[in-house]
Design brief:
The structure is a homodimer. With about 325 residues, chain A is an alpha/beta fold. Chain A folds into two domains: about 5-160 and about 250-335, Rossmann fold (3-Layer(aba) Sandwich); about 160-245. Chain A is about 35% helix and about 15% strand. Chain A is built from eleven helices and eight strands. The first copy, chain A, has helices at about 50-55, 100-115, 130-140, 160-175, 190-205, 205-210, 220-235, 240-250, 265-270, 290-295, 320-335, and strands at about 5-15, 20-30, 40, 70-75, 125-130, 150, 275-280, 300-305. An eight-stranded mixed beta sheet of chain A has the order 1-2-4-3-5-6-7-8, sandwiched between helices. In chain A, helix 3 (about 130-140) links the parallel strand 5 and strand 6. In chain A, helix 4 (about 160-175) runs antiparallel to helix 5, helix 4 (about 160-175) packs antiparallel against helix 8 and helix 5 packs across helix 7 (about 220-235). The longest helix of chain A has 16 residues, at about 100-115. The radius of gyration of chain A is 19 Å and the shape is globular. In chain A, about 55% of the residues are buried. The interface between A and B is large, with 41 and 41 residues.
């Protein structure tokens, strides 16, 4: 039995003007919705993450405690569970999949919450990385519906350097002629491996490598870490799915919509939610400087930088100390009125 | 007429045990050698740089003043001027070119200095990036022959993260099947472009991009910078040459030789030269932390971090303020007894 459910939205009109046929959001829930429907936490997924990758923050005694809260984990489109190049039919299969924005995802998630659960207000939206992008978008698009935001190692608008990093990743993947402009039958394994090796330098910090912390993850050498972790991780992924999500990532901007017309500061200022922003101290692609800028313009936010050498992974499940830091801040955030 | 000369060394026995046939160092000189041969500055080149790329630090009134000093710029092997895959003949042409270490380069440069100029002692060895690697090697291998070192945005031993960064660059380049394991006739243009796009994120800092400083370099947009600067830069380069130099870079370690047998601290401690170490404050692949470690073990060194958002490029020719910072420190270093 699957540990997730499907919410089907049929034809969904995207921000781009295109239509996403047979659109669906795969989601998992934990806990019970309270009678007054005021105990809901939305916890969207990261780049290529699924609901299964999110569950480390959920459990009895943790901030995201299913004994107290109704926790909904919607999968981001393009991750292979929600609508994605890999699970869509012609004419929107594979490289023909339309561009889906974070705003589109938020609107689909909102319909899920309203139509399936009758939920119109969120106690908290929390996410890591692309999950944080979704949390920020929720706050800016529906300020009255979001009480709290926890944005972990993510941004409200993809920075220029982050764009460049992603351009490199796309170029490495698509340098493999087996990619065939996305119309591959056999996966472009050389490109997937290359992308994994390229990503390795960005996801973890210089200090992580200096201290050989890949050993804590069970890898004896740097080469073993690159081959057995990074290459294998990317070999499991579908190239078109990743390219779809990278499009979403590159176009993430809470002000890129008719509410704010590109006025990023105004979009930040519109977020009413009590917010904790948790960048990783050594994150190379969502560096703390961008978070500081955002906190300085958010009306009700505090910065809690994760003191960690785990780079972008500081906000993920990789090490207990950082998870505790995040969990403790989520507890505090949830306890605040 | 060429602005450089060739020093031919014939068969050169490499650190690896292999032989480099018809070996040569292309070099350029500025100024006049003094009668007592004590005014010599050695200024080796960076990754894929040539003597032409070094000349911005040389000139009347600058620290490297040809009216005072005899300045020798040896090209690093693999750059297309000194012995390289692209200019060697069978059986060491192209992908068959042997692995050449920084130590090998230092030994070749030392023969050049002794056999052509009768020079046995250097006032200064100065270099940026891979040039700094050569400067450190000179100091560790021949402590009695080097009076001063200026190491700009480089390291004495390639760090684990730096290895990962380079693994990514190789993977992006060689993902192009046109590379043909180095036996291409037509250049692997897709891989070269991909490598350029990947390198773009590493060479300059997050802050550089945040502040849109590519505009100062004459590029109107991020995409124009990626395409017209980075892709074009790499399209001019020979893939095998780059791979040869990346091998050299990845194996750069002043202690990887029979003098120090891998004892990196002992190799640092052996450097007698008065040394100024100038990392770029925001350098992503030679971060200041590695320089601090080195300075802490060098007997006679000071740290002068370049206060710049230009990332690795802080030590290069890209902006006047950083060049002035470097030049002023070189002047001070040369004035010290």
């Amino acid at each position: 039995m699957n540990n997730y459910q499907i919410f089907s939205l049929g034809e969904f009109l995207l921000q781009s003007g295109c239509t996403l046929r047979d659109s669906m959001i795969a989601y998992q829930t934990f806990g019970e919705l309270s009678p007054d429907r005021n105990n809901v936490i939305l916890y969207p997924t990261r780049f290529y993450g699924t609901h299964n990758d999110n569950s480390f923050l959920v459990g009895p005694g943790k901030a995201l405690d299913p004994e107290k809260y109704f926790i909904v984990i919607p999968n981001l489109t393009g991750n292979g569970f929600s609508s994605s190049p890999s699970n869509s039919q012609e004419p929107i299969d594979r490289a023909n999949f339309p561009n889906v924005s974070i705003l589109d995802n938020v609107l689909m998630q909102r319909r899920l919450l309203r139509e399936v659960f009758g939920v119109e207000r969120l106690r908290l939206v929390v996410g890591w990385s692309m999950g944080a992008q979704q949390a920020y978008h929720w706050g800016a698009l529906f300020p009255e519906e979001v009480e709290r935001i926890a944005a972990i190692a993510g941004s409200a608008k993809t920075s220029p350097h982050n764009q460049v990093f992603l351009e490199g990743m796309k170029a490495a993947l698509t340098a493999d002629s087996a990619w065939k402009n996305g119309l591959y039958i056999e996966p472009p394994v050389v490109g997937l491996r290359a992308m994994g090796r390229c990503w390795a330098g960005w996801a973890l910090s210089q200090a992580f490598y200096r201290q050989h912390l890949f050993r804590e993850l069970g890898f004896a050498s740097l080469e073993e870490f690159l081959t057995d972790f990074w290459e294998k991780l990317f070999l499991k992924r579908d190239a078109n799915n990743m390219l779809a999500q990278i499009w979403t990532w590159q176009h993430s901007d809470i002000s890129d919509n008719s509410l704010y017309n590109g006025d990023f500061v105004r979009a930040l200022q519109a977020i009413k939610a009590r917010t904790i922003v948790m960048p990783g101290e050594t994150d190379l692609y969502f560096p703390p400087e961008d978070s500081i800028y955002e906190v300085n313009h958010l009306p009700n936010a505090e910065l809690k930088t994760i003191p960690s050498v785990w780079g972008h992974y500081a906000g993920g499940s990789a090490n207990t100390k950082d998870v505790d830091f995040v969990d403790n801040n989520l507890k505090r955030l949830l306890s605040l009125d």
